[in-house]
Amino acid sequence: MPQARRKTPFSGKAKKQQLQSKKQNKTLLMSTSSGTTSYDVVSVNYQPTRGRGGRDTNRYALKFYRETEEELKIKKEEALKELIPVPEKDLEVNPVDYFPADVSFPKRPPWDFNMTPAQLDAQEQRYFKNYIDSLQASEHWKKMSYFELNLETWRQLWRVLEMCDILLLIVDVRYAGMMFPPSLYSYIQAQKKDMILVLNKIDLVPSSVVAGWKQYLTTAYPALRVLYFTSCPAYNLRGVTSDKAGQSNEDFCETILEKADTSFYTHERYKSGVLSIGCVGQPNVGKSSLLNALMGRCVVSVSKTPGHTKHFQTIYLTPQVRLCDCPGLVFPSTVPRPIQILMGSYPIAQLREPYTTIRYLSERLDMPKLLRIEHPEGDDTWSPRDICDGWAKKKGYLTAKAARLDTYRAANSLLRMALDGRICLWLRPPGFAEHRDKYESCEEIKYIRWVQALTSDQEEQKSDVLTSESDDDRHSDDSDADDDSTDDSETAAIANKFAALAGDD
């Protein structure tokens, strides 16, 4: 007989932390006119094991409200309805439309050095509960999307905002307007600090779109400074040799000082002659890749799983410059949930209903033409389920028992391709269609193309959608499911993003 599994020691401290986590979840109850309805809070990327030294590895796990069974039922029925293409004008987004003026992010309540840690914790717990209650009472509550419900994660943001002299906000340029919270800009202005916006992943969109976003954001927010960046795991600005993202590094412990405390900190500008730069952004925007490129080697592990960075880390770029990396968190907003899925705020593997996001994607891109798939039933009209079935048929995704088309797996595959940029949807700034010619001929285009490492001819060859089916099976265990090897010659070639820089050596 197999031996029984050895019991894992469970200390009193661990039990206390578990009870505190349950208590926090119980405070997130939604009060309605019909009574008190409990909404499940799901912990994203939950780790069943404990960290070294008995540390609670789930202390900073992302937490969101879970959809009700009724909502899931409605969404699954919608997946069978016909797709209605969206005009290009509707792809223009304005941050103000998704971050209402009366919806801000939670800020650290007033404190003083006479308060004990227990008093501080109780005050912050009470403040956060009142903050959630105020959101639930607002007119925007029904439109609210996923946002961070873990107080511990917000405490990390408070710590970074207190320490930094300059705030570095990193966004994915494809969804820049839905990742830029104006309330954070206003807060930094009130603190008399500087703010830099980094438009990341600019290799995935046309140069004119990048120029359009910079023009719009710098006009709407005059004190904002905008920079460009594109990350590549096998190359960085400091040289061609780099550690593979996610691998351990011998100098990792010597370079990074992990700090999980939320103790008091009185800000002093350029304290001890050191410039502190806080790095903030939503999950999966590429903060860790940016830090690794700045350091010239892997100092922060990279993962596509949201919430991979658990707590803020202090990294010394030079003896006089330090970077404070905050965990990725989702700010309260009315950004549509499908967009949050596409930009990586919520783990695709934990989606209970992916077809709404497939609809959002398919109504803005010609997916049948892009994927070169045939309708599974030979019809002329497409639905989100038809798109998934067509992709499952082409890739050979079948269920284990009944050998039916594995629609859910196909949907996950398409969403991962969209997250990676192999199926590329980007949103435009307001007025982009009207001023397209101006953006395509502005002086900024030359510099953007240099950062993208694209020549003019390469950009002309670059299609509106970048996709590469040849490496789609990176997320699949069965590599021989794809028998359509002739498609590799038809897929778009993606240029080396740092070819121009490499040529300077």
UniProtKB/TrEMBL annotation:
Record key words, sorted: GTP-binding, Nucleotide-binding
Sequence ranges of Acidic residues compositional bias: 479-489
Gene3D superfamilies assigned: P-loop containing nucleotide triphosphate hydrolases
UniProt xrefs under PANTHER family: GUANINE NUCLEOTIDE-BINDING PROTEIN-LIKE 1, LARGE SUBUNIT GTPASE 1 HOMOLOG-RELATED
Record's compositionally biased regions (Basic residues): 1-16
Protein name: Guanine nucleotide-binding protein-like 1
GO molecular function, one term: GTP binding
Region (Disordered): 1-34, 456-489
Chain ranges of the G domain: 277-330
Residues of the signal peptide: none
Family matches, as InterPro entries: GNL1-like, GTP-bd, P-loop_NTPase
Recorded superkingdom: Eukaryota
Job of this protein: Possible regulatory or functional link with the histocompatibility cluster.
Biased composition (Low complexity): 17-34
Record flagged with keyword GTP-binding: yes
Organism: Spodoptera litura (Asian cotton leafworm)
